[in-house]
Structure formats: C-alpha cells, structure tokens
Design a protein that fits this description.
The chain is of the alpha/beta class and 258 residues long. The chain contains 11 helices and 9 strands. α1 crosses α10, α2 crosses α3 and α8 packs across α9. The N and C termini lie far apart (36 Å). The protein binds D-glutamic acid (DGL). The site of D-glutamic acid (DGL) has 17 residues, from α3.
C-alpha cells in the first residue's frame, strides 16, 4: 500500500526525461523524486518495439515492487509508445503517466498549421503517433521527422557546437522555406537542444514539447489518488542510472541545473 511520503519515480532511456522532471519538481515542490535513466541500454528509439517494451516493463516493475514508488512518470515518448498501455493494465491502482508528442497545441496554435514532429523512429512508427496524426490530419500538415542519433548528442553532454549544428541542419533544411508553423519535440531529450533548433528554423516557428502537460497530468493523478503531499517537507531529487559511469550522474545533475 503506497504511503503519501513515498517517492515519485521518473523514468527515461537516458537523461532526456530530466526536461520533464524539471517541470514536475517545479509543480510539486514537496515531493521526493527518484529519476532513473537507463543509459546502459540507450538509445531505445532505434530498438525493436518489443525490446523497448521489455526494458521499460522491467524497470517500472522494479520501481513499484522494490523501490516503493507511489507514482510513475514514463518520461520517454519511445517507452510510452511501446509499454504504457500494458503497464496501466499491470498496475491499475498506481498513478502512472506517459508522454506523447504535443501535436494538439501545435495544431491549435494557428490557422494553417504545418507541423514537423521530431521524434525517434520507434515513436513515429507506433500506433500512439498514428492515432494522434489521424485526429489532426484534416486540419494540419503533420510531417514526421525521425531523428535517429540525436539523443546521443545529449547523452554525451553535447548541447551545442558544429557537429550538432550540422546534424540538425541536415534534418531540418528540407523543410526550411516551406511555411513551417511549428515543431513538436517528440522526444524528451530534444528540449536540451531547443536553442539550436530555434536558431536554424528562425524565430517565427514555434517549438512545442509535452513537459508541462505531462507534469500537470501527473499532479492530477497523484492528487486524485490522495497521494499529493501537503506537509512542510522540502522535496528532494535522487538520480540513478543503469550505467556505472559516474559521468552519467554528474551530467544528469548538470542537465537538471540548467
Ligand atoms: N527520450 C526518449 C524519448 O522521449 C528516447 C531516446 C532514445 O532512447 O532513443 O523518446
């Protein structure tokens, strides 16, 4: 039975979910958070769906059964696409949220939306994305842009520089001068390189990510379960990583601090 003082677990294939964690700690400052990055097995986005599913289920089961997490955030679009439905069936009583590409706000933002969705190959081939695409297809041009290799820059702490710049230009240049109105960052790693993306596409293109919506939904579910803290406790964040490279924790703390 979950206790109100138990921590909330936030999971990603690596350090990308820290972009979502930041929003969560801002919104729920009294909560203790455990952040787990599976950098040892990253990237998830170029694996098979079944591999991603097994890894995700294994880690989340460990959080719930052994680490006494009172709520779970799957802060990874790829893992959400592959496993969140099954996890909800496995743990119907645990407040559990996933992330999905923020297509809705990008489409509703303007009259003739033409939206790029940057995400991993797994996210873009899964049913969750196709369902979202089907909802908004009639009112917008939605253009998937698979970005294999992009999360690796962030995992290595490369948040700017020539190599990153040329990767992004290569992905985005076919769409420059085609009246793009918005870009959806459909992978939780990508907000860490938002500045570079914005510089390439120019200030008139709006960039969207799902962090705020996910944090809000988590708070709603934790509240609904009667598990939101209201005592005077100052919340904490503990970083864990499946890799034994100490740089992973140092980089996680750095990404959280910027
Ligand atoms: N951060 C992950 C996401 O939101 C994926 C990165 C990866 O492991 O490929 O999709």
């Amino acid at each position: 039975m979950a206790q109100i003082t138990d921590p909330i677990a936030v999971f990603d294939s690596g350090m990308g979910g820290i972009s979502v964690l930041k929003e969560m700690t801002r919104m729920m400052p009294k909560e203790d958070f455990i952040y787990f990055g599976d950098s040892l097995h990253a990237p998830y986005g170029t694996k098979t769906t079944e591999e991603v599913r097994q890894l995700t289920i294994g880690h989340i089961a460990d959080f719930i059964e052994n680490k006494h997490a009172k709520a779970i955030a799957v802060a990874c679009n790829t893992a959400t696409s592959a496993a969140v439905r099954i996890l909800r069936e496995m743990y119907p009583d645990v407040p559990l949220v996933g992330v999905e590409p923020a297509i809705k706000p990008a489409v509703l933002d303007c009259k003739h939306p033409r939206v790029l969705v940057m995400a991993t190959p797994v996210t873009l081939k899964e049913e969750k994305f196709h369902n979202l695409e089907a909802i908004y297809d009639a009112q917008a041009d939605i253009i998937p842009v698979p970005c294999p290799g992009l999360m690796e820059f962030i995992e290595q702490g490369i948040l700017e520089g020539e190599e990153l710049d040329s990767y992004l230009k290569d992905k985005l240049s076919p769409y420059l001068h085609t009246n793009i109105t918005g870009i959806v960052l459909g992978c939780t790693h990508y907000p860490f390189v938002k500045k570079d993306i914005q510089a390439i596409v120019g200030p008139s293109v709006k960039i969207f990510d799902g962090s705020f919506g996910t944090a809000k939904e988590l708070r709603r579910r934790v509240t609904e379960a009667g598990l939101l803290r209201s005592d005077e406790h100052a919340g904490t964040v503990a970083f864990l990583n499946s890799s034994d490279d100490p740089d992973k924790i140092r980089l996680s703390e750095y990404l959280y601090s910027i």
